[in-house]
Prior knowledge:
- There is one protein chain.
- The chain is of the alpha+beta class.
- It has a domain at 15-117: Rossmann fold (3-Layer(aba) Sandwich).
- Helices cover 28% and strands 14% of the residues.
- It starts with 14 loop residues before the first helix and ends in a 31-residue tail after the last helix.
- The relative contact order is 0.09.
Amino acid sequence: GDFIMIGENEIILSSGQKARVSFACALYGNVAIYLLDDPLSVVDHRVAQQIYERCIGPCGLLKNKTRLLTTHQAQFLSESNQIIFLSHGYIDKQSCLNENNIRENYANNHEKSKLATLFDDDDKSMNDNQSIIVDEKLLNDDTRWSIW
């Protein structure tokens, strides 16, 4: 199974299947820290729940590893040690939330607005005003139209 070629001319996979294969390859890595960039977004709800429970969650294969999970799916927040909210590329709020608060607010179907109200207004957002985008500068104006 590890050496089967999967690609354009070999085997055609759906985006969900590609995500599962990619995630399985990451699990083979056996590293200390896993950075998971929304791996559950391309699979259906049932499959996402199974992957979370069997791999990412507190009883899953990665239970003794550090897991950084980016997601828009609030149902996975209840078992997180720390939650960081981003807004326009910057840290907006961060907190440790308890399971009961998450479940109550998720059940009310106002995930984003209700979760945001869990934080004290006294807590200051972290200010990160330094841009990571650098302005492009023209080095040479000799670009020929044939290149475009």
